[in-house]
Every structure is written in C-alpha cells, then in structure tokens.
Amino acid sequence: MSGAGTTTEVALRPWPAPVNQALSKEAIHSQIGQLAAERGHLRGITEKALHEEIATGKDAPKETTGQDEEDGEAATHEKKNEPTTIEKLEDIFRAKVDMVSALNVVAWNAAGALDLVALMLSRDPTKVLDNSFSAHFKAQNVPKGAFGVDRGTPPDRSDQHDESLRNAEDERRHQLVARGSSMDALDWATDNILKAATELETGVRKETKYWAEIMSISEKGWSIQRSRRGVRHAPFAVRYGHSEASDHFKARGLAPLRMDRDGSIILDPALALKPKVLRVRISDHGRVTGTSKLPSKGEVTELALENSIQLARDSFFEEDLYHEMCLESRQLVAYGVEIRDSAIHIVSPSLSNPATHRTIMIDCILREETSQGSHEQPLDWLAQNVAEALRFLLAHEHRMRRFQRSQLPHPLTQQKRTTRTPPLLRTLLSVFSHVNAVNSVSAYLAVLARTFSSAGIGCSLQVTGESSWKKLTTLIRESTRKDISAVDQLFEVFTKHLDGVVTLSLPSSSGAEPEVITIATRTYIGPPTFGAEHKVTIPPSMASVLNLSSDQKRDFKFSSSEGVTSYLDWILSLDLTHSLLLELYRGRATLQSKEPQITIGSKVGKRPIDKDVTIEVADGELRASLKHSSEHDSSGREGTFVWDGSNGQPTLQAMVKSWVG
Amino acid sequence: MHELLLYGQVPAPRHDQVLKILAGVAALQPRRLLARHIIYKPQRAPDEPGSHLRRGGTQAIGGKNHKQPVAKDLYYSQLVQKLSEEDLNRSGPQPSNGSSSTGGTGSGAEPKWTIEFQDVPDTGDRGVSIRMTTSTGILSGDPHAYMLSNGPNQFMSEYYVEGHQIVHGNVVVFLHRVLHDSSGTSPKANLPKFTELKPFDPSGAYILEAKVQVQEFNNTNVLEAGVDELKRFQSQMKGCVELSVPDRLSLDTRVKYKAAAPSSKKAQPGAR
C-alpha cells in the first residue's frame, strides 16, 4: 500500500485478514465480485496458475493493484460492464443466493445450539443468561430450566469390532476383579462367622457354668434375687442375711453374683470377708476356765462359693448378735456389765460357790483364731451353753420381729414407737441371778431343814425353781396363741419375769395342813424389781407372834438372799421359842421379850428357879443355850448345845427337858 | 379413727400371681382370713331430704334465730364375725355353745365379734379415699340381739368375705372376695359350708384393698405420712394391680330416702 503507486510490479495478494476470522458475508460477496470483474471468470484460477502469472509478470490490470477498495469496486464495475456473459452473472448470483441461504441455515443452527446450551445452563439460577438467548427463542417464552440433560447409557457401539473386543476384554477383567473381591469377602465372612461361633461357644459355656452355679446355690436353699438394674455382669444376687436383722445388718446381707471371664461366679468382697464367730469365756478369778467351741459348720459342700456364703451368713449372725449385745450392755452397766477391750464382761457369781468371782466374757473374734488352744477346760460346757442360749435368743427375736410385722399395725399417730433392744444379756442375767437367788435360799433352807430334823423338829421344805418352767409343756399345749410356734412360746417364758417359790413349814405347826412360810422369788431385769427380789410371806400364826395387826401385810420384800436368810433365822428361832417351847411348857414358861428367849420356871427342891432358854438359828446351825436368869443362883448348869445336822444328836425337846426338867 | 383406702380389681385367674407378688413385696406370708358380715339397718325410715327446712311463714317471735334442727342421716351398720376354716367346714350342726350366737371369748383374746360402722368417704381430694370408721369389739353377750335392740335395727342381709391379708409397713393389704348365700330374715344359726357359698361377683374376681389407719386425723403431718405411704404402695403396684380411688358415693352407707313405700330395698353386700 505504501508507495504502491510508484511501482508497477505489484503482486496480487489477498487482503490480510485475521487468521481465525472468516470473511464476512459482504466481504466474500465483494471479493467474488472483484474476482469476476478482474478475470471474467473463476475457472482455471488455481494457486499454480497464479504463481505462474506472478513469475511471468503477467498480472491483473494495473489500475486495480495497490488501489483502494473503492478503486477495486470501480474496476469491478468496469468489468461488469464488460460483455462476458449475462449467464455468468446469473450463475454467480444464484450461487450467492445458495450460499446465503446455506449460511442462514448454519447461523440458525448455531443460534439454536446456543439457545439449547443456554437453556440447559439456565437450570442454574445463579447464571445470568438473558443475553445468550436468541431473540427468536426469547419470543417463544420458554421457561427457564425447562430442559435438562443427564448421563445415560452410552450408545451401543458393539457393532464395531475392536470396540467389542475391548469391551470383551474389559468384561473379562471386571469379572476377574469381581471374583477376586468376592472371594476376599467370603474369606472375611468365614473368618467372622468362625469368630462369632467361637465367641458364642465361650458365651454358652460361660452361661452354662454361671447358671449351673446359680442353680446349685439356689438348690441349697439360698434365696436368689434379681439385682437392681444397671449392675453389669451380675444379673442375680444372693441374700444370705436374715430378713429380720437390725437395719444396719439388713443392708449388708446381699451379695451380687458376678460372672468372671470363664463364667464362674466371682466372690463378692462381702462374702470374702473373714468370718467372725462369737466366743464366750468363763473366767474365775481372772483365770479362764471355759471357752465355747466353734459352732458346727453344717454340711460341707464342694463349691467354695456356697461354703463362703454359708460362712458369711454365720458370721453375719454372730456379728449381729454381738452388735445387739453391745447396744444392750450400755443399759446394763448397773448390773456389772461392761465392755472392756471389745469384750463384754458380765460379772456373775458362780452358781455352785457364790464366793467365786466369776466373769463371763463375750467377744467376737475371727474364725481362724478359735482353732488355737483347744485344750479341755472344766467349764467349757457352761461357756458353750451360754453361747448357744444367746444364739437361740437372737433367733427367737428375729422370729418375733417377723411376727410383729405381720400383725395389724397400730393406727398412725404422732408418737414415735420406741424400738427396744432385744433382751439377750438381760435374759442371761435374769436366769443367772434367778437361779442364783433361788438356789442360795433353798440351799440354805435345805441345810436348815436337815439340822431341824436332826434336832427332832419336823419341818418340810418344798422348792420350785421356776414356776413356769415346771409346767412348761402344759403351758404350751394349752396355749391359745396358734400363730406363734411352740419354740417361740418357750423362749417367751424365759424373756418374761421368772418366778420361784420355796415353802417351808413352820416347826411349831404340824398335821395335815401345816402353816408355811413362802419365799417367792421374782426376777426381772428392768422395772419394777430390777433384778431378783424375794418376798417372804409369813403365816397368820407367825403374824400374831410378831404382834402384827390382822390388817397388816404379812409379806416382806428383800432384794438379797442374805437378808432373807437372816430374817428367816430370826423368824424360825422366834417360832421355836414363842410357839413350840411355849406350847410345850404351857403354864411354866413366860416370855420376857421379843427376843427368841423363853423363861421356863422349874422347881429344884423347893426353890423355883427360872431358866432362860435361848434359841439361835444361824448359818444353818441350831443353837440352844441355857442361862439362869437370877445371877445369885449358880447351882444349876449352864450350857449350850449346837445342832449342825449330824446324826445321833438328841432332840431339842429332850435337851430342853434335860435342862429344865 | 380414719381409714385411707385404695381399691383395685384382680381377676380370678391372676389371684395366685398377685398374692405371690404381694408376699414378695411385703416379705411376709399372707394370712388367710374369713369373716362373716351381717348388715343392719335402722328401723326408722329416714326423713325426707329438706324436710327440716322452714316451710311457709312462721309464727315465732321475730328477732330470734332459731337453729333449724338438721335431719340426721341414718346409716347401715354391720356386725363382723371372724371365722376360721373349721367354722365353715363343720359337717354337723353347730355346737350349742358355738360362737355363732355369742361373742363370749376368754379375756385377753381377740374378740370374735365386732360392730363396725363406716362413714361416707370425705369429699376432700387427696388421691386416696378417706373415711371415718369405728370398730367395737364384743366380748360377751349375744351380738345379734344387741344390734336389734340398739337402734333399733333390723336385719338386712349377710355375706362372707374370704381372702388373704398382708401387712406391708403401715399398709394393710387385703385381697379378698365377697361370697354370699341365700339370705333369710335373720342371721343363720348354723353357718353354711364353704362350698355352698357363691362369689357375689360371678366371675370370681377379687378385690384388692389397701388401707392405712390413722388415729390423729387432724394432724396434717400424720395424715400426709399415711397418704404418702399409701401412694407409694400404689405406685409400687403399678403394672400389677391398678389401685384407684373408688367412687365416693359407691361407698355410701347412708340409708336412702324413699318417698313412696317404706323401704324394703336390700342392702348391697358390697356396699361397705
């Protein structure tokens, strides 16, 4: 272009166009028109021919080369005017029309494709696509997102051979992979099933063992109960405590039956505690003379668990017993009960010899400790009996608590009912002191009765240790309380007050119905007697001797046996003098005082002499002494005679007769 | 004395199961009880309701408020006899000195006969039925003659109660059913055999009665404690027996007024 006008040799070349850009419709039209104008026709115009033309210098008309488009057009206009052929122009025009129509079709298709893509994309509301739609499409008012596309099955290409080959190969590979993986999965499943089977097997074994042990425990009579929810590995618990134990112990009497890894039952810590046992020792003057034995173990079972349940139950009972006694001992300090070194000490006089300082010691020790030092001691029997009695009493208390629970409750009131401690030590104490009191009185009276009989004085003695013990069988047989068992009625007799009766006939009275002195002993640890109490009832004749008015009570209470014996001594000596001798020497005898002394007048020669006979009963001996009342006279004898129960002694009457004549 | 009550129903097939559950709950063996109830009604007919109200004008001197006499309600009362198994299984006639006619028992023993009176339950809503009761033991004499002359009453009917009693704390649980026999015009001198008695409910269902007795009814703490204990038992038995408050008027023991003929209505054996 620059300086083109100066040179004539100008190469014909196309207008440099952008590489990617196709010629526009108008440009193509104009170029075709230009070509037709230059050459007259398009036939024979090839690249080679054009190169040759360039080489030979034969070129297009000068006026068009290097000119502006206006010039070119002008040239074409010039060419049009050339008389080539009118048909040629028509052909060109027809081709042009064809081309235009084809281009229109293409443009329409492209617009349609664009519309389609835009319509597809329009499903996404975030995309702004309004400008992408063609006007024609917009006019149709197709709703947005009305067209969708999805992945479907690929079109069948099996008709192609290699495609099918490749498909077959793929298929084979897939099958191989599938087979491999399914074998893998089967392998894994087998492993799992086997593992589950072994797990199930161990589970079954575990459960079988657990249940067998549960059954064996249950068959032995232990009460099995479901444990609370939420306790793992322990669906059941065994209750070995006593249902009526005190609250403190009731909570302890339950042990869960836990399962260990192989199914056997784990010992609960509550069961594995070292069992304890109650021990009763008797000590005389600080020397142990009797120890209770270990309670029998019951039947031995092969299962360690059952053994330990049984031991736990026994230990539980003993601990409960000890606990109750400790509580009770606090109320019994006045009776010489105290706790020292965690042992309950009960001071109790020996039954055979009251002078002995005897102590009963009760403590709770570990079961193993009892096995040592098991040599025989003389009072083992007593210790053993005390221990058994205490156990029986607690068992009785448990049964009575249950009985009380089954009775109709009292209507609700504001007052709280006090729960008493069970009378365990109290019963023991009351039995001891009762037997002691009755025995000491009756033993003394037995000695006295022998002495009296050796002195020729008739006197009979009757001893009833405990009135209700005597008629125990009839008491139970005739009982109207059907809901209490005979054993419990038996124990109730012991826990109530104890009554003993000793009767001694008066020496002065004789015949079928002799007058008697009654010594009733009543023992109860608690109000009103607080121990043993003797009540001496004297017969009416005695009352007149004692100058008691008729409306006065003829019974006297003593709290100790010493008081009773000394009173009886005095009464009996009074009876001997004031009734027996007075009756014997009626008319001659006079009573000087209220002392057991009688003055009997006798005649020795002409002088009447008064002789004093004094009777004294003491320590089981009868002592009669003769004294002259008038000092100035000493002719007569003075003497004393003592009856101590030995045989071959003269009678009292004979003795007095020999004295007084 | 006041009673706090809840009732539940137990069908006959479940009786044994419920009894076992109750024994487990209370940790006690049930006690079998047999009793005979004889219902008496006052001979006097009840006043017409509202008859005490002032009608028409009055000639009383004005200014003085005369208290209107309130019509007294009349109540059914009953005589309860404790029975043992032997009493109802005896084949021959009753021994002449039998306890069926006299209430004489030895001193100290529980009386066989008691006069029981039960008031209409309270209107209050505490979740349990509350009513006043009195129970008087008869130690000697002829209870039936006493009841007839005291009132004076007339014999209505008699029925028998058999069941089991379990005490759970302060709650007295009585699982029982009412049996009856063809009734006559006076209490039977000879007790019928147990096999001759038929359940009042033909299905043979049992009644579960849970009762707490309260002495100091006016003390709120005591009453609350009783109600709480009864409700605790109620929730404990949930799922086994549904205990509920009975309809107040179904436990009405008042004699109904009948305008027309003198009442010859039979007392319901279940009305207690």
TrEMBL record, chain A:
- Regions of compositional bias (Basic and acidic residues) in chain numbering: 51-62, 74-83, 153-171, 626-636
Q: Where in the cell is it found?
A: Nucleus
Start and end residues of each stretch annotated as Disordered: 51-83, 144-171, 626-646
GO-annotated molecular function: transcription coregulator activity
Source superkingdom = Eukaryota
Q: Which GO terms describe its biological process?
A: regulation of transcription by RNA polymerase II
One GO location term (cellular component): mediator complex
Keywords, ordered alphabetically: Activator, Nucleus, Transcription, Transcription regulation
Q: Which InterPro entries match?
A: Mediator_Med17
What subunit structure does UniProt give? Component of the Mediator complex.
Instruction: State the family named in the UniProt similarity comment for this chain.
Output: Belongs to the Mediator complex subunit 17 family.
Function, as annotated: Component of the Mediator complex, a coactivator involved in the regulated transcription of nearly all RNA polymerase II-dependent genes. Mediator functions as a bridge to convey information from gene-specific regulatory proteins to the basal RNA polymerase II transcription machinery. Mediator is recruited to promoters by direct interactions with regulatory proteins and serves as a scaffold for the assembly of a functional preinitiation complex with RNA polymerase II and the general transcription factors.
Protein's name in the database: Mediator of RNA polymerase II transcription subunit 17
The protein's gene is named: MED17
UniProtKB/TrEMBL annotation, chain B:
Its main localization is nucleus
Compositional bias (Low complexity): 91-100
Molecular function, one GO term = transcription coregulator activity
Q: Where is this region: Disordered?
A: 44-67, 87-127
Q: Which is a Pfam family this sequence falls into?
A: Med18
- Compartments where found: Nucleus
| Biological-process GO terms, alphabetical | regulation of transcription by RNA polymerase II; termination of RNA polymerase II transcription
Q: Which Gene Ontology cellular component annotation is one that this UniProt entry carries?
A: mediator complex
Could you list this entry's UniProt keywords, alphabetically sorted. Answer: Activator, Nucleus, Transcription, Transcription regulation
How it assembles, according to the record, is: Component of the Mediator complex.
Which PANTHER family does this chain map to? MEDIATOR OF RNA POLYMERASE II TRANSCRIPTION SUBUNIT 18, MEDIATOR OF RNA POLYMERASE II TRANSCRIPTION, SUBUNIT 18
| Similarity comment | Belongs to the Mediator complex subunit 18 family.
Q: What does the record give as the function of this protein? A: Component of the Mediator complex, a coactivator involved in the regulated transcription of nearly all RNA polymerase II-dependent genes. Mediator functions as a bridge to convey information from gene-specific regulatory proteins to the basal RNA polymerase II transcription machinery. Mediator is recruited to promoters by direct interactions with regulatory proteins and serves as a scaffold for the assembly of a functional preinitiation complex with RNA polymerase II and the general transcription factors.
Q: What is the designated name of this protein?
A: Mediator of RNA polymerase II transcription subunit 18
Q: Which source organism does the UniProt entry give?
A: Massariosphaeria phaeospora
